[in-house]
């Protein structure tokens, strides 16, 4: 069941994308990981627009990992749009960012983020966080049946 | 020149001249014998003169005591003379003084004794009031050719010399009061002094002129007394009214200047605050952006070491670990730099801070390190001061952290924290205006010749391999202390531990923002 769940990660930094992919492998989670590079691509993916229109190649994510600081459209804007959209608001959003600012934390939850995690500084930390996310969101928590 | 010496010296000169004249008993061509001072008055003025000069210039205690003694004797002579005339004891010819003179001399002598004391000097104006009044009236009468009658006659009748000498001594006594007495404003530079000096001239010359003109007019039969009064009144109103307008226009100009200066200052301050805020934002963003590449360096060197350990030899792994630790150090340094810059630019409102609570919080934060080193920390009673809580906490964090860190290997850290009132410049005041907090440790200590160095940014006394740190901690402490209007210093000896002493005022200095213009000033 949990293996079928797709994780979509919105992250603008290519190094961080690489580290995320490596960490997922290290964590031994069996989920598939897809990337988008900013808020615009994120919304396009979720709405099946442009190069993400094929539902097989771009499956609907069961969990969203969202960076806040991205070019063109940042995570905060995208979060607001997602939670305002009836079709998309049921996707759990975990904000995963380097920002520790109180105002970002408060606003994210205010808009409707499900969790806020400050990116660990070490790689090991990142691996552990992914393991914990996997265990929490895919084993402990019940997720709604996915629409396609 | 000290006015007391000048005035009394002049009076003494007059007295000596009178005495000389009396002794020689020559009808002086200048002044009729009846106008000369009585010899006793002359002697008394002479004594005053000597005493005053000695009080002013005397360096040794003997001279000072002698001066006072002479003055006291002179006063007693004057007093005796006064009692003699008022009690109508049989006089021995005209050797004693006239009542007005003896009264004046008694009061002036008392003033002379009082003027250089700590508390009695404030009575000098009261004491010289009557002598100055009598002498002035006497001289004015001579000028105008008028005569006093009745009780006023008794109190104004004195020889011209005596009146002159009394006037001089009286004015000298007023001028000799601490901080220049009532005449202080005359000596000021700037507008107050200018106005005072000019108006004084007006106040002296104009009434004399008006009075003299009126008398002359009456005597010449131009008008009678009643009309003379209305003429005098009108002239006085016009001239003094003019003086008022002239003075107030000068003051109004001053007020405008001052208000403009205030406005400029406010604008400058607002600009400064804006610039500070910009700088602060820039520092925050810059530090955040600088951290990001360092994070990557650390992360990827970790990855390399973890996943490709097999392909690297010992040297390779060593290089990687040095790389990673250098990146980690730089991250701490950037944070410290940010802290250092924040001390001055981030302005929170000072609030009452309970120091015991701050120390407790810091100790809780350092719990792990304290447990690891089995450190013993004793905290005595600490006061509550008004300060910026985050910054005070930083100071304690740095000082206590250092005390735990800089111990000889294997030593158990022992730290004592206590406070005492800082030595105050306002002696005798019950209110404590500043506290010195001591943080004493049993650590490695340092040579006091490095005292200035350790508080400078980036300065360290030890290599990286001995003790970790960026050299910013104490620099931040000093900046915080100075921002609160306090100081920080230390006492130490190598191997003998260190005591850091932070002095903080009960209330930090006022904000740099000048108070807003009052409603009055805005009009």
How would you characterize this protein structure?
The complex is a heterodimer of chains A (about 150) and B (about 525). With about 150 residues, chain A is α/β, with parallel strands linked by helices. Chain A is about 40% helix and about 15% strand. In chain A, strands 2-1-3-4-5 form a five-stranded parallel β-sheet, with helices on both faces. In chain B, the strands form two sheets. Chain B has a five-stranded mixed β-sheet with strand order 2-4-5-7-6, covered by helices on one side. Chain B has a two-stranded antiparallel sheet with strand order 1-3. Chain B is elongated and about 130 Å long. By secondary structure, chain B is of the alpha+beta class. Helices cover about 60% and strands about 10% of the residues of chain B. The longest helix of chain B has about 80 residues, at about 225-305.
């Amino acid at each position: 069941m949990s293996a079928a769940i797709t994780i979509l990660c919105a992250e603008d930094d290519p190094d961080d994308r690489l580290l995320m992919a490596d960490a997922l492998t290290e964590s031994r989670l069996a989920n598939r990981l897809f990337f988008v590079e900013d808020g615009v691509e994120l919304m396009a993916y979720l709405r099946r627009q442009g190069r993400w229109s094929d539902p097989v190649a771009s499956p609907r994510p069961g969990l969203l990992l969202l960076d806040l600081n991205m070019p063109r459209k940042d995570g905060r804007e995208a979060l607001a749009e997602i939670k305002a959209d009836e079709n998309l608001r049921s996707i759990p959003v975990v904000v995963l960012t380097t920002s520790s600012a109180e105002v970002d934390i408060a606003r994210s939850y205010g808009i409707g983020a499900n969790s806020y995690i400050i990116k660990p500084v070490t790689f090991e930390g990142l691996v552990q966080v992914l393991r914990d996310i996997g265990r929490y969101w895919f084993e402990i928590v019940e997720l709604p049946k996915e629409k396609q | 020149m000290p006015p007391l010496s000048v005035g009394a010296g002049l009076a003494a000169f007059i007295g000596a001249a009178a005495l000389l004249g009396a002794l020689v008993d020559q009808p002086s061509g200048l002044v009729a014998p009846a106008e000369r001072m009585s010899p006793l008055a002359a002697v008394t003025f002479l004594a005053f003169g000597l005493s005053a000069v000695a009080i002013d210039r005397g360096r040794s205690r003997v001279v000072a005591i002698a001066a006072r003694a002479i003055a006291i004797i002179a006063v007693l002579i004057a007093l005796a003379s006064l009692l003699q005339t008022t009690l109508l004891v049989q006089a021995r010819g005209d050797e004693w003084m006239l009542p007005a003179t003896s009264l004046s001399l008694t009061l002036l002598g008392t003033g002379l004794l009082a003027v250089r004391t700590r508390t009695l000097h404030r009575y000098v104006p009261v004491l010289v009031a009557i002598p100055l009044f009598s002498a002035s009236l006497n001289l004015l009468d001579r000028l105008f050719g008028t005569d006093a009658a009745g009780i006023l006659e008794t109190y104004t009748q004195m020889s011209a010399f005596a009146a002159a000498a009394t006037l001089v001594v009286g004015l000298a006594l007023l001028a000799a009061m601490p901080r220049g007495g009532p005449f202080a404003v005359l000596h000021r530079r700037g507008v107050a002094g200018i106005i005072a000096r000019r108006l004084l001239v007006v106040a002296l010359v104009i009434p004399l002129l008006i009075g003299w003109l009126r008398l002359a007019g009456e005597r010449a039969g131009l008008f009678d007394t009643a009309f003379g009064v209305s003429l005098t009144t009108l002239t006085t109103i016009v001239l003094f009214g003019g003086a008022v307008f002239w003075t107030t226009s000068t003051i109004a100009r001053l007020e405008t200047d001052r208000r403009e200066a205030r406005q400029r200052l406010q604008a400058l301050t607002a600009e400064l605050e804006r610039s500070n805020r910009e700088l602060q934002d820039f520092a925050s963003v810059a530090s955040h952006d600088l951290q990001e590449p360092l994070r990557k360096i650390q992360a990827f060197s970790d990855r390399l070491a973890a996943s490709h350990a097999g392909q690297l030899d010992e040297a390779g792994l060593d290089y990687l670990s040095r790389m990673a630790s250098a990146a980690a150090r730089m991250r701490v340094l950037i944070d410290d730099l940010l802290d250092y810059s924040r001390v001055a630019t981030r302005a929170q409102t000072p609030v009452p801070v309970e120091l015991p609570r701050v120390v407790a919080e810091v100790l809780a934060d350092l719990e792990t390190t304290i447990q690891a080193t089995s450190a013993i920390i004793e905290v005595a009673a600490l006061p509550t001061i008004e300060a910026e809580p985050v910054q005070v906490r930083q100071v304690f964090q740095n000082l206590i952290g250092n005390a735990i860190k800089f111990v000889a290997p294997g030593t158990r850290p022992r730290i004592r924290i206590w406070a005492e009132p800082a030595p105050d410049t306002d002696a005798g005041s019950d209110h404590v205006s500043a506290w010195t907090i001591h943080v004493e440790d049993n650590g490695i200590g340092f040579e006091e010749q490095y005292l200035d160095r350790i508080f400078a940014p980036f300065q360290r006394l030890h290599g990286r391999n001995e003790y970790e740190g960026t050299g910013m901690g104490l620099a931040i402490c000093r900046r915080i202390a100075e921002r609160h209007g306090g100081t920080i210093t230390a006492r130490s000896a190598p191997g003998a531990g260190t005591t850091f002493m932070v002095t903080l005022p009960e209330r930090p200095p006022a904000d740099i923002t000048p108070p807003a213009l009052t409603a009055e000033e805005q009009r």
